[in-house]
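Input record (one chain):
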Amino acid sequence: MKRSFLPQTLSLFLIALFIITSCNNNQKQTPPYTGINPDSVKNHIINIDVARSYTKSFREERTRLDSITQGKFLSEQFNLANAQSLNRDVFALLLEQKDKEGNLAAGIRMYNGRKYNEALKRYEVTVVLVPYDRKGNDIVNKLAVQTSALKLPGIKSANAQNGGGDAIDNAPRCPEACDDGGSGLNGPGGPQ
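The corresponding structure, as predicted from the sequence alone:
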């Protein structure tokens, strides 16, 4: 009986094609937004030495204020972080929001907020981010992220639980989640 190698060859070819295609997809990732208008960003760009002086001044004055209040009020009621960080997906999600007319967000507004950290038993200053439209008004949408969540019959999805819209928070805080010191923005370090 003569055996045909066509099914095995075809299977191996399809597996190889899948692997090659997967590798190429990983290498060809492009940023979600590449249409940067230089005129809209040039007034926001500052020299890194100026940025270092701003962050140094903040840390020094926070320390001075902490000594004036004897370390209680500021650390217990405000607990100011040196920085907070969010990944690029958070910004992409906010910038993809549309206003009432269907236009994409013009930018992201960062509000200062204060919340109670149950684990640390103290208040913390945090950033609350929302997109805004071309008129400068906040866009308050439901920030649903599509996931492959388990769907149970008769139970509404988590995305539909509160109807008032969402904002972004819960950014990792520095000094717990910081740069390695190379930039000089969180203290000594960086190019001299």
